[in-house]
């Protein structure tokens, strides 16, 4: 049987020990809300770029011939000439396709050449750079698609809305996006450009103004972004004149 002195010492120790309390209900939701508020658009974009670069460099599989023969092979010939050994398919020889998409990667190859000469890279390192640079370029394009998916969700459902964050989450964890979005297909670039266009499109013009909503001199509805642009235009008269000319020619 424990002595009275030992019992008193044990009681005193238990009273001095810090008490671990269970987190209150809704604490997880509050922490999530604080995290969403702390995250800036720049932070999210940098995270997406880092994620897609990791995605692009970790993909080692072959999906479609077009990711090479409709982009990288023509790009190689644009950058280094007809005698460079590029594999060019018949539709390029008959000028049936636009060279805009391959020209993007041709510019990347030219930058790789300049970078290699500047830092005197070994042939092995130079070859690795030629392999990685198009992947990193496409990773940035894919990250912009993810970013503007989130921004489009915010425009549709409101800034900081759960729906916008759900759209960002779904595009980040999508297995199809991981498998396909960082490949050098023209369709991947088209997807990103389409998402950006949907975000930038003035959807508020398609409905008539209701209630106390503002309209411009042409009777078109204004949103918050337009109001901000006009406030900036007041500070710079030249910008106001450019905006008026743009609207008159639209």
Description:
This protein has helices spanning 4-16, 27-38, 41-58, 66-69, 72-80, 90-93, 100-119, 123-157, 162-173, 175-180, 186-200, 224-235, 237-249. It is mainly alpha-helical. Helix 7 packs across helix 8 and helix 8 packs antiparallel against helix 9. The N and C termini lie far apart (94 Å). The longest helix is centred in the middle third of the chain and has 35 residues, at 123-157. Helices cover 69% and strands 0% of the residues. The chain is built from 13 helices and no strands.
Indicate the structural class: mainly alpha
Q: List segments where confidence is low: pLDDT < 50 over at least 5 consecutive residues.
A: 226-236
Give the number of helices. 13
Integer-rounded radius of gyration: 28 Å
User: Roughly how many Å apart are the termini?
Assistant: 94 Å
Taken in chain order, the helices and strands follow as HHHHHHHHHHHHH
Number of DSSP strands?
A: 0
Helix content: 55-70%
Name the overall outline: globular
Average residue pLDDT: 80
Strand percent estimate: under 5%
Biggest sheet, open or closed, and with what strands and sense?
none
Helices, strands, pairings?
Layout: H1 4-16, H2 27-38, H3 41-58, H4 66-69, H5 72-80, H6 90-93, H7 100-119, H8 123-157, H9 162-173, H10 175-180, H11 186-200, H12 224-235, H13 237-249
Helix pairs in contact: 3-8, 5-7, 7-8, 8-9, 8-11, 12-13
Short description:
This protein has helices at residues 4-16, 27-38, 41-58, 66-69, 72-80, 90-93, 100-119, 123-157, 162-173, 175-180, 186-200, 224-235, 237-249.
């Amino acid at each position: 049987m424990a002595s009275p002195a030992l019992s008193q010492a044990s009681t005193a120790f238990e009273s001095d020990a810090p008490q671990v309390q269970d987190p209150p209900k809704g604490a997880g939701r509050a922490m999530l809300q604080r995290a969403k508020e702390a995250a800036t658009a720049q932070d999210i974009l940098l995270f997406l770029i880092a994620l897609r670069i990791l995605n692009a460099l970790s993909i080692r599989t072959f999906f479609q011939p077009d990711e090479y023969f409709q982009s990288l092979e023509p790009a190689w010939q644009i950058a280094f000439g007809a005698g460079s050994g590029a594999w060019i398919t018949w539709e390029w020889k008959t000028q049936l396709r636009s060279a805009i998409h391959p020209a993007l990667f041709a510019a990347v190859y030219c930058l790789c050449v300049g970078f290699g000469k500047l830092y005197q890279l070994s042939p092995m390192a130079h070859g690795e750079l030629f392999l990685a640079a198009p992947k990193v370029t496409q990773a940035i394009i894919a990250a912009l698609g993810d970013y503007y998916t989130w921004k489009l969700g915010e425009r549709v459902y409101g800034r900081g809305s759960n729906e916008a964050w759900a759209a960002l989450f779904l595009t980040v964890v999508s297995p199809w996006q991981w498998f396909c979005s960082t490949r050098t297909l023209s369709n991947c670039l088209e997807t990103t450009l389409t998402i950006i266009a949907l975000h930038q499109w003035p959807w508020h013009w398609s409905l008539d103004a209701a209630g106390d909503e503002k309209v411009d001199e042409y009777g078109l509805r204004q949103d918050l972004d337009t109001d901000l642009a006009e406030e900036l235009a007041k500070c710079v008269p030249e910008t106001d004149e450019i905006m008026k000319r743009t609207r008159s020619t639209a």
